[in-house]
Amino acid sequence: MRILRKFALVLALASLAGRAPSSAGSADALTPLPVTEVAPGTFVFEGAVSLMTRENEGAIANLGFVVGRDAVAVIDSGGSVLEGMRLRAAIRGKTAKPIRYVINTHAHPDHIFGDAAFLQDGAAFVGHQNLPQALAVRGPFYLDAFRPILGDELMRDVKLAPPTQLVQGSAELDLGGRRLTLQTWPTAHTDSDLTVLDQSTGTLFAGDLVFVEHIPIVDGSIRGFLASIDQLAGTEARRVVPGHGPVSAWPEALAGERRYLDQLARDVRALIARGERLETAAQTAAASERSRWKLFEEYNARNATAAFSELEWE
Amino acid sequence: MISSCLRQLCLVAAVAAPICAQAAAPEDDDPWPGLVQDIFQGRPMEDGSRLIVLEAPNRAEDAAVVPVTLRTTLPPGDARYPMSMTLVIDHNPAPMAARFEFGRDSTITALSTRVRVNAYTDVHAVLELSDGKLYVTKKYVKASGGCSAPAAKDAEAAKKRLGQLRFRQFATPPDPQASRTREAQLIIGHPNNSGLQMDQLTHLYIPPSFVNEVRIWRNDEMMLSMEGGISISEDPNIRFTYVAGDEDRIRVEAKDTDGRVFKGEWPSEQPGP
């Protein structure tokens, strides 16, 4: 019996190694994440528009890093430590400068499960002032819930690193001749949303305040989401790195998301006014948007549920 | 490929010998028999599939807000009446979500609430009839996918709503004029904090605070009461179908674990403020 289990483990490791070496390996042995230099010194990995799975190593969110004269800042670390290590390998393929900051745009697993890959760098972990509470409330649940989804191998090293530098309102990080402006938002996509503007290239890392192609997800407040993107639209930038979907022109990238959220809010309000049940909203709200988004079936009912229980209080 | 073959191998092996006992644990480890002991003192359970309908989505779309409806379906002429209904979410940290008690003349035939669902789980509904017996039915609910969590989405907003009561009534189709059947909905603004979350990293601790008792009277008669736990969603929500009388007044009193009391009163058949 024990032999078989060992055999299984070896096979599992071998199959993992076929795609990318195990997270136990050194950074040199890892396949770096494919990154694109969207502007000088500003790099982006585009995640798959998908749910997190064992097969995609949790790599569904867009990640980025910005290289300054003195140091590097990472924006989101990915959905597994393996992905975080591969991001780190990609950074090391571009620069040997120290990784000084790891910025988490919010508390969702696809953005933070890679944090532990950067513990070795002694980087500051930067997040919204609400991030510690969000991690406290959601962290243990995420660790349990994603073990069967991602598997023990990918989950083993995941640690939810406490943010060491909290942001309330706006803050600047200096990478040496290169400033990043961080901005926190009232509850919108989540209650710990933070955006990063790379001033020198006009690149806005919007986290999950912006979705392109991937259906927007409401895990905070639909009213807050709509209000925040109206304000965010005023940000002077050339391009946006959304949390999910391709790097896009700014602020045009907001149009689809705004239309979807408006439609969802409108439909849900009408259902509430008619005395319909939450279940009905989950099945019918924003149905006109179905063909316009990837992962609509996976998330729309959930968005409608969240919107319904929020808008019921109006 | 390899891993899926391997899983099949495990499955085959598991039938032959408990070699993959760990992987198969969730199915083997059925908490229900223990819950029958703990919650119902081991009382015998009759098949309730003809007397009670439990409606819940196949998948918890939002782990924090999963709608559940319980309907009694006593055949016409059956002299028995419902005494209580208990909703159990087997794999939640606090499985007993709610126990509803009905007044003798409540006329309630259906009620809905919203619950948190932490994991793949059976949900059980247990109906106690006036014959003194318990009747059970169940439904399997898959946990939500993605980043959904059974947690507050906007803790600040929830705090601001604390203590607000909303009461609405809806005439039920198909023939609202001819029928006096009404649906009433009560929402109690409350974060319903579970107190289960402690963080070793930040030492933040959110103390438990939840609505544990709701009583609803029609005029001076107790109509419906709920004993609730932390599996009930933020802003506890009860929607029930009943037969309205002439000039009923609906009175509500809710209590939370901090000893706060929330009260409201509304005339029947008119929307509340």
UniProtKB/TrEMBL annotation, chain A:
GO biological process, one term: antibiotic catabolic process
PANTHER family linked: ACYL-COENZYME A THIOESTERASE MBLAC2, METALLO-BETA-LACTAMASE DOMAIN-CONTAINING
Gene Ontology MF: a single term: hydrolase activity
Leader peptide range in chain numbering: 1-24
Top-level lineage group: Bacteria
Originating organism: Alsobacter soli
Protein name per Swiss-Prot or TrEMBL: Quinoprotein relay system zinc metallohydrolase 2
Similarity annotation: Belongs to the metallo-beta-lactamase superfamily. Class-B beta-lactamase family.
Keyword entries, A-Z: Hydrolase, Signal
Entry keyword annotation includes Signal: yes
Domain Metallo-beta-lactamase: 60-244
Automatic annotation (TrEMBL), chain B:
Keywords: Signal
Position of the signal peptide: 1-23
A family per Pfam: SoxZ
Protein name from the UniProt record: Quinoprotein dehydrogenase-associated SoxYZ-like carrier
Domain Sulphur oxidation protein SoxZ: 177-265
Originating species: Alsobacter soli
Residue stretches making up the Ig-like SoxY domain: 37-147
InterPro entries named in the record: Fuse-rel_SoxYZ, Ig-like_fold, Ig_E-set, SoxY, SoxY_sf, SoxZ_dom
